[in-house]
């Protein structure tokens, strides 16, 4: 027997790929003893078996969270509520009946107006804060982001207190001053709804555009200025084209928000009898028995519109890419506004004042009032409603606990799944990574109320029958906000070099151990921020939970919605203030933990660098 045919040798064409070595650096099995070769082959098989198990588990979880609910929506949309037979009747009715297509038209009108106004407010506001010497820039930024944290339907509640035609404080003051009987403002109108939706959608455009402006290198604008270009021409020829992708994304996100919001139209349009798609869906569920199949068909236009918008965004950005060349970041130079500083400040205060200051003051004053119609006079002030909500009312106590627990658990599960999928995709660990990424990002084009319909259809029937359970509500939250967690985790991993992971695997560490000991610690700060990005929207989410909760699983948003229907505005305002306070406390605690960890790392680095 030749040496090449000896059992201790393996043909060099059949290479044993050790899971701890990168392709190209794996030693040939022919150089190993038979026992070592078998051990390497066993390790290779275990390694790929582990990856296969992880892939199967992830696909099963994503199928339950995303594929099955959406599948039930499509399936139900082709069935008749009366007979249960296959039919296209639902789609025919949507476009043949005025009562069904009119809400679609109203939603498109609302979404278009919200997107335009949010862009017209958000883009100049971002430029003023990021690039000029306007006074109070920190205050403007803080309160604009406070508008993001504030649930828009709570803002609508604040504006009901201010601008309701008969009892709103602004209208009462107007009647006293003018001596007339007609109201100055009517918040129960399409114009009022557009106004409220817009001021709470501005933070999306503001955040995207201000980040783009702050990351933009200074050299291009300096070059334009050097060549004699003025501020306006530089903005038109250099700044605006560079931030146009961010403006476009902000416009699309604002449109989708206007199209899919439920709370604001329910609070402001329902009293006048004007319906949009989301409130019409709620009407289907209020029937007895609920029109489940028609509601499923009614969801399809929402899915089609949001899907087309994201496709258009991808196509436009794919054709029009702007790349900056240069390594310098922004210098501290700010554009001097001179005589325009005060007019610019007045414009910049529109969103903070109308979205935060005025509604917050109204909500707090009403929550401290015995009867809000008597006005904020000293004899009318009381802490009764807070005492009632925190110590006396078991329903409110349970809703506060449910909100914090559901949001915390859902945000944690979102981050776990998002991190795992992002790690597989960014490190290209599996050939099916693209499928995982596609499944995780699908909910970004699915409105929350549509996913709620899907979860209701899929999991409130036998054998599971999870209606009204915490499991169903948490799962719906996870599915809705999973794209945010995945996007945040992917962004963090893009900034972490895989070299340290390769080094750990080259000395025998498994992928799980490498991730736990190398990658996860490097991601820690970003993961806390990602957790907050998921936790805050869950805490203020109404449309996802509205069809899934029961009296025992009510969260603060659904409880506030129910209280408002009962007309007890003092209790509604107290519950709203508690929701805002609880969210703020969690945000501050998370920031404290993050900043404390960063401070300890800086101290450790400085001590290590000390001679």
Features:
globular
Please, could you describe this protein's structure?
The protein is an all-alpha fold and 611 residues long. The model is unreliable at 1-30 and 320-332 (pLDDT under 50). The N and C termini lie far apart (65 Å). Helices cover 70% and strands 0% of the residues. It is built from 24 helices and no strands.
SSE arrangement:
Blueprint: H1 34-77, H2 89-96, H3 98-131, H4 137-149, H5 152-163, H6 169-178, H7 190-199, H8 202-215, H9 219-226, H10 231-260, H11 263-268, H12 277-286, H13 292-319, H14 341-348, H15 350-367, H16 384-392, H17 394-426, H18 433-441, H19 448-459, H20 470-494, H21 499-506, H22 511-539, H23 556-566, H24 569-609
Measured by DSSP, the beta-strand proportion falls in: under 5%
Average pLDDT taken over every residue: 83
| Parts with pLDDT < 50 across at least 5 consecutive residues | 1-30, 320-332
Give the overall silhouette.
globular
Quick structural gist:
The protein is mainly alpha-helical. 70% of the residues lie in helices and 0% in strands.
């Amino acid at each position: 027997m030749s040496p090449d045919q000896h059992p201790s040798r393996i043909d060099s064409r059949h290479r044993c790929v050790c899971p701890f070595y990168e392709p190209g650096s794996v030693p040939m099995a022919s150089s190993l003893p038979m026992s070592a070769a078998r051990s390497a082959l066993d390790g290779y098989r275990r390694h790929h078996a582990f990856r296969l198990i992880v892939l199967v588990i992830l696909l099963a979880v994503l199928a339950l969270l995303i594929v099955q609910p959406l599948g039930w929506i499509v399936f139900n949309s082709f069935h008749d509520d009366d007979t249960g037979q296959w039919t296209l009747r639902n789609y025919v009715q949507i476009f043949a009946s005025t009562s069904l297509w009119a809400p679609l038209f109203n939603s498109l009108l609302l979404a278009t107006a919200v997107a335009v106004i949010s862009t017209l407010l958000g883009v100049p506001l971002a430029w003023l804060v990021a690039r000029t010497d306007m006074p109070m820039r920190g205050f403007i930024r803080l309160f604009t982001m406070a508008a993001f944290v504030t649930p828009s339907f709570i803002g609508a509640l604040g504006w009901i207190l201010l601008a309701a035609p008969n009892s709103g404080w602004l209208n009462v003051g107007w009647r006293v001053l003018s001596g007339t009987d007609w109201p100055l403002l009517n918040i129960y109108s399409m114009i009022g709804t557009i106004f409220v939706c817009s001021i709470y959608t501005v933070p999306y455009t503001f955040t995207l555009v201000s980040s783009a402006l702050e990351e933009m290198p200074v050299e291009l604008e300096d070059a334009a200025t050097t060549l004699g270009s003025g501020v306006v021409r530089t903005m038109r020829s250099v700044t605006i084209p560079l931030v146009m992708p961010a403006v476009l994304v902000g416009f699309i996100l604002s449109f989708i928000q206007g199209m899919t919001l439920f709370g604001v139209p329910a609070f402001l349009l329902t009293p006048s009898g004007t319906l949009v798609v989301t409130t019409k869906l709620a009407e289907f569920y209020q029937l007895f028995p609920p029109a489940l199949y028609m509601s499923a068909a009614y969801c399809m236009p929402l899915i089609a519109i949001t899907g087309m918008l994201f496709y258009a965004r991808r196509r436009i950005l794919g054709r029009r890419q702007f790349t900056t060349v240069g390594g310098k970041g922004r210098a501290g130079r700010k554009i001097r506004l001179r005589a325009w500083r005060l007019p610019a400040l007045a414009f910049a205060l529109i969103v903070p004042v109308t979205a935060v200051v005025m509604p917050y003051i109204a909500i707090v004053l009403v929550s401290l009032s015995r009867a809000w119609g008597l006005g904020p006079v000293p004899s009318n002030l009381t802490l009764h409603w807070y005492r009632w909500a925190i110590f006396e009312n078991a329903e409110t106590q349970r809703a506060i606990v449910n909100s914090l627990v559901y949001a915390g658990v859902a945000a944690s599960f979102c981050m776990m799944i998002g991190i795992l999928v992002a790690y597989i995709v960014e490190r290209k660990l599996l050939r099916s990574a693209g499928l995982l990424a596609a499944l995780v990002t699908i909910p970004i084009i699915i409105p929350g109320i549509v996913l709620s319909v899907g979860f209701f259809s899929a999991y409130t029937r036998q054998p599971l029958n999870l209606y009204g359970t915490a499991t169903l509500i948490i799962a719906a939250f996870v599915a809705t906000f999973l794209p945010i967690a995945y996007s945040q985790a992917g962004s963090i991993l893009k900034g972490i070099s895989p070299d340290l992971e390769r080094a750990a695997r080259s000395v025998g560490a498994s992928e799980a151990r490498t991730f736990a000991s190398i990658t996860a610690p490097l991601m820690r700060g970003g993961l806390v921020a990602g957790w907050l990005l998921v936790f805050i929207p869950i805490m203020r989410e109404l449309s996802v939970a509205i069809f899934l909760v029961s009296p025992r699983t009510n969260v603060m948003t659904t409880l506030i919605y129910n209280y408002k229907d009962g007309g007890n505005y003092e209790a509604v305002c107290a519950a709203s203030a508690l929701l805002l306070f609880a969210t703020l406390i969690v945000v501050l605690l998370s920031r404290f933990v993050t900043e404390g960890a960063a401070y300890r790392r800086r101290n450790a680095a400085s001590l290590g660098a000390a001679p």
